[in-house]
Design brief:
By secondary structure, this protein is of the alpha/beta class. It has a single domain, classed as Rossmann fold (3-Layer(aba) Sandwich), CATH 3.40.50.720. The protein is built from ten helices and eight strands. It has an eight-stranded mixed beta sheet, with helices on both faces. The longest helix is centred in the last third of the chain and has 20 residues. It is globular and about 50 Å long. The relative contact order is 0.15.
Length: about 250
């Protein structure tokens, strides 16, 4: 576990004074490598929170470019960024925020064919992609590699965040009906801009707690947020004995 320099001790002082974190927890954050899939609405909350918290290495995977229709929910970007790579711009943001965080942009669309190569060296994967096919491909690879997966999604006024550690997996939750690429996304259904920040911020908090070891184990729990009622509720995801991804784990 890597030591903290004097400037890092000063930067993270408000973390270190927390009994639940301390120097040990901060060093755990520094030693962790996280892959963030999607630098969109969810990623715009997750990436600043993890970089600010001192997660040592961030891999930001997104093949998209900035469009004006993104800006109501993606505060990583500005109007002048239209047409530029989201992954590259997210890298620049991280470098401006925290020089102690090593960030790597990957301008690729993650798929069943390349997911294992892109994710294999990470300690945690946070998936903020906007379609079921990608989420399931990522989940299947995380199960196969034994990498914890934190999945976060937001559409219309509804958000969900769940941590999965092999069994139950994300496929246990949604089944096999959403493997196609033509499932609805927020582009068709719409999404309230502030909702993605709420869900992404919660996902970042869950990730930090998981890395440091704060609170109860959240694996297998799905946290659901209703943006109209302003209400959180939590459900337990059961393992599917017939799941083609994790039933043999």
């Amino acid at each position: 576990m890597r030591d903290l320099t004097d400037p890092e001790l000063e930067r993270y002082a408000r973390h270190i004074v927390l009994p639940q974190v301390g120097g040990v927890g901060q060093r755990k954050l520094k030693a962790t490598k996280v892959a963030v899939i999607g630098a969109g609405g969810i990623g715009s909350a997750v990436i600043p929170a993890l970089a600010g918290a001192g997660v040592g290495q961030l891999t930001i995977i997104d093949d998209d470019v900035v469009e004006l229709g993104n800006l109501h929910r993606q505060p990583l970007f500005r109007e002048r960024d239209e047409g530029y790579s989201k992954a590259d711009l997210a890298l620049q943001f991280v470098h401006r925020l925290n020089r102690f965080v090593e960030a790597t942009p990957v301008q690729k669309r993650i798929s069943p064919e390349n997911a294992e190569e892109l994710l294999c060296s990470h300690d945690l994967v946070i998936d903020g992609s906007d379609n079921f096919a990608t989420r399931l491909a990522v989940s299947d690879v995380c199960v196969r590699l034994g990498i914890p997966l934190l999945s976060a999604a937001a559409v219309q006024f509804q958000g969900q965040v769940g941590l999965f550690r092999s069994k139950p997996c994300y496929r246990c939750f949604v089944g096999d009906a959403f493997d196609a690429d033509d499932c609805d996304t927020c582009a068709e259904l719409g999404v309230l801009g502030a909702l993605t920040g709420t869900v992404g911020g919660f996902a970042a908090l869950l990730a930090i707690n998981f890395i440091v070891g704060v609170g109860e184990d959240q694996a297998g729990k799905l946290h659901l947020f209703d943006g109209e009622k302003l209400d959180w509720r939590t459900i337990q995801i059961p393992s599917d004995p017939g799941c083609k991804a994790c039933s043999s784990v």
